[in-house]
Amino acid sequence: MNDKDRRYEWGAWLVWIIPVIVIGVLISLARHRDGTIQIYNEACGNWWARRDIYTGRQGMNYLPHFTLLFSPFYALGMPLCSILWRVVSVLCLAWSLRRLIAIVSPQPCSRDFFWGSLFAMPVCLGAVKFGQANVPFAAITVLAVVLLMEQRWKSAGAALVAAIAIKPLGLVLVLLAMCGCRRVIVPVVVSGIVMLLVPFAFAPPEYALAQYTSLIDNMRDCSQAAVEHRFANLNSIFERLSINLPMPVVSVMNLLAALGTLVVWLFAARRFDEPERGLLLLSLATVYLMLFNPMNESNSFVIVAPAITAVAIRGRQTASNPTWTWSLAVLLVATWVLPEMIYSLDRHSRLWGKPLLAGIGFLVVMVARTRELMRANASGALPPESLHSGIQPQGCCR
User: Fold this and answer.
1) Which residues of 242-280 are buried (b: 16+ CB within 10 A; e: fewer)?
2) Fewest C-beta in 10 Å: which of 49, 96, 318, 357?
3) Which residues contact 121 (CB under 8 A, 6 or more apart)?
4) What average pLDDT does range 16-20 have in this prediction?
5) Which pLDDT does position 226 carry in this prediction?
6) Between 376 and 361, whose confidence is greater?
């Protein structure tokens, strides 16, 4: 790495670290309300006191495993708990993004890492500010896809299951990966069995079983939030158009969208080599979550930001139309800026604006680019193999 690349590398890490330092200072000065961390702390406290960790939609909505993952931070007490949680989460996300960029971009990738961070970090800033689990969840989903692209099946299976442990939303990526990547099925199943048994190692069996039962009730309750006009998903776009969908219609729509996502993944993935296949998997999974997660929040778009960034960088590196790169860069900027600009005029702008831009907008660009790549593949006009970062052509789905 030469001096110029080293400057880009340091610059990229500073893009991620500086906001965390600022937020940490505000927390230390007690000028930042940390409601999300309080929810996590309360859940950990309830777990170790053997009380129910599920107190409704406004409280804990993750698997019991999350309380175990967060417990080392909980033990530190406030405000160190809050600061260190953000530091670890952001560093994991930046590291995972860099690993992904290193695959989609020829080495050295420091310049792409810097510009990608510069565009992605503002979209992630809200989740970082509030210390949400969306940040480590985004990191582990990116890492899981990277491991799949590298054909490290055991590690990939463990990472996929870890995504579910952090947020149940990880199930979307797990199901897509298992349907398209046969060699990861056994590692996922084994890791899943181990994950199910973990709570019993830290609590009496009857208490652990009770929390699993409460989890099912909590997930059922959360699924009913799909029709509430306070979440940033596809339903909010419909509501902004004065189209109020009943819950049965929303459920059918979500199911059809899931089937459509699976069909696109299975149809297109086998026609691509890496890294296009892995990028498609990450893009489909995260776009689906941004549009159909019943409790998707404005700050949840940290989950899709790495996919948009990586696809934009890949588009710049290949011989395909550079329009994709600029359109995706504009999408990232608009997702951060536009809803905030019109918030004073429309207080629901974040709820419909972000899924419209980073959900439907990214989906349109992704489908169009996928179609172009498939046509190029059919005509033998794909970029030379050197642009595939040395990954074996069998990829993650053979």
Assistant:
1) eeebeeeebbebbeeeeeebbebbeebbeebbbbbbbbb
2) 49
3) 15, 16, 19
4) 95
5) 66
6) 361
**pLDDT score of 2:** 75
Region for 320 from its dihedrals, namely left if φ exceeds 0, alpha if ψ lies in -120 to 50, beta otherwise:
beta
Cβ atoms within 10 Å of 153's Cβ, excluding its own: 19
The secondary structure of residue 296, as a DSSP letter, is -
Contact 240, 69 (CB under 8 A): no
pTM of the model: 0.91
Read off the tokens for 102.
């290193």
- Mean residue pLDDT across the chain: 88
Q: Is the pLDDT of residue 379 over 80?
A: no
What is the C-alpha to C-alpha distance for residues 170 and 183, in angstroms, rounded to an integer?
A: 19
How far lies 397's CA from each of 60, 83, 182, 280, 281, in Å?
35, 39, 7, 12, 10
Q: Could you tell me which of 374, 358, 339, 373 has the C-alpha nearest to residue 138? A: 358
Write the DSSP assignment of 194-227 as a string of letters.
HHHHGGGGSS-HHHHHHHHHHHHHHHHHHHGGGG
Report residue 394's pLDDT band, with 50, 70 and 90 as the boundaries.
Answer: very low
CA distance 115 to 112: 5
CA angle 150, 156, 157 (to 5 degrees): 150
Q: Is 339 exposed, middle or buried (0-12, 13-18, 19+ CB in 10 A)?
A: buried
The number of beta carbons lying within 10 Å of the beta carbon of residue 204 is: 10
DSSP state of 100: H
Closest CA to 237 of 57, 64, 361, 386: 361
| 130/111 Cα distance (integer angstroms) | 29
Mean pLDDT of 229-250: 86
What's the rounded mean pLDDT across residues 317-340?
80
29 phi/psi in degrees, rounded to 5: -85, 5
